[in-house]
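Deviations from the work plan: none for this task. Representative record:
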Amino acid sequence: MLTILFDGIAYGMILFVLAVGLSVTLGVMNVINLAHGTFAMVGGYAGVVLVNRWGVPFLAALPLVALVAAAVGLLLERTLYVHVYAKSHLDQVLFTIGLVFVSVSVVSWAAGSQVVFIQLPEFLRTRFTVFGASIGAYRLLIIVICGVLALVLQGVLARTRFGARLRAAVDDPVVARGMGIDVARLFMVMFAVGSGLAGLGGALGAEILGLDPSFPLKFMVYLLIVLTVGGGSSITGPFCAALLLGIADVAGKYYLPSVGAFVIYSVMLAVLLVRPQGLFAPR
Amino acid sequence: MTVGAATAVLARAGRWRWPEVVFWVAAGASWFVLPEQHLLLNEICILGLFTLSLDLVLGFAGIISLGHAAFFGCGAYIAGMLARAGYGDPVLGLVAGGVGAGVLGFATAFLVLRGSDLTRLMVTLSVSLVLFELANRLTFLTGGADGLQGMAVGAVLGRFEFDIFGAVAHAYSLVVLFVLFVAIRWIMASPFGVSVRAVKGNRLRAAAIGIPVNARLVGIYALAALYAGVAGALLAQTTQFVSLDVLAFHRSAEVMLTLVIGGTGMLYGGLVGAILFKVAQDTLSNLTPEYWQFWLGLIFVALVVVGRERVFGWPAALWARVRGR
């Protein structure tokens, strides 16, 4: 029971790190981005190459992976995404689905379509028992890293000048621009940060989530659920939603394996009906 | 404007023009001229009908749907299960599939009335995901991941047995497509269709001049679902097989691309798009069978970055000229 809760929290934490970048593009820039999972996949495969092939230690590889994914995100943002900011939602949907299809094909061409794993170091494979719950060191690491990231993000957003600017741009981009805030640059930075975080999440969670070329398609739905349930305008909303989803999914798979993902989708439908703006969003 | 004058305007807008006649004559002639392409042309007819149905939702009602395959799959499974249970009459299957999907559309239409584009996108997507999971789990009904096997589809109207070359299938699908197209053309030129367009143009104003906005949206959504269901039933009957693939996400994405290629909001856009899409798919997947999705995605990206208006500006202008006569 506690083990399931623990695994669920680890899973939810990963989902949060994956999705937090999306809350910027979607909640802030009002761009429907279905291709966010692509950056997570980039991070995951970068991790595979770094750790398995080049022998970089797992922990040292994580920041590198985030950098790679952020660079890819920045590149795509500058070359492609800038063209679709002002377009209709239909265009954005088409564009990002296109990106997903392209990335899925490119990765399956380059790396094969089988599931790959990042080799974990020995000390992360151990398990120990606390209060009767069997806890894996790997999942504990996930929770620590993601938890710290969430706190840092919240701190940056709430306490720094950059965070204040971002919140201003979120509330009213036009006025923020009028006050001399370079909104486009701000968004660019946040896009890169979001992609980097997704990449980190992809590499960190490769073991739990399962990494294969269809990753962006598989997790597109989960990431969107986190966003729609959590609401896009804060960090805490998606965080709570990700934890809930993670716990519900792990528990559902454990207790009701025959029902599967059905419960998750139905619950989301219900949430969308009752509160289209998200469960944790301020009214 | 009096009622009589308004009716006259609608009647004039609904009149058939010669390019349309040419189009349908060519479609009919394809059965005689291209006998070795029956299978591909059958697929084009089915995709055309499915895309036409999405056009009603997206092009005429302005609802972005990422889960239109839900209705397609619903129709396909109903027709398939009927045929397996011994009710193999194709027309019966079509009607049942269409009505079943239409009822589903009516039930879920109320979910897409509110919220933003993103909410609607998520709602349509999750409806199709729920159906996919249902079809995947209810193995005794649907065969699950193995697909629905053992369908026994009877002869069309009791006379024309389906053959392996797809000649009967092609003719059957083409006739169904034509009949349903004529029907929808008539509906969209009626006061109902015109008011649906008004709702898309400006919801608030449409409500202000007395159009029941929600009723119109629910109506067109259910109608579109019915069309998608018939398309699914056609696929099930002509291929004598239904798999989970009919409900898959990529089907919803592909039909959207097909519609965008052909142009939204013109009825013919779906048909033209289906021809272009299927021919491109056939050619590209002969060249690179595994990476067909790569090209599909690239087309999506290029279309949007270059700008749909620029790429497809000329056929729309042509159509406007034809209509303006």
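Chain A has one domain: 2-121+129-274.
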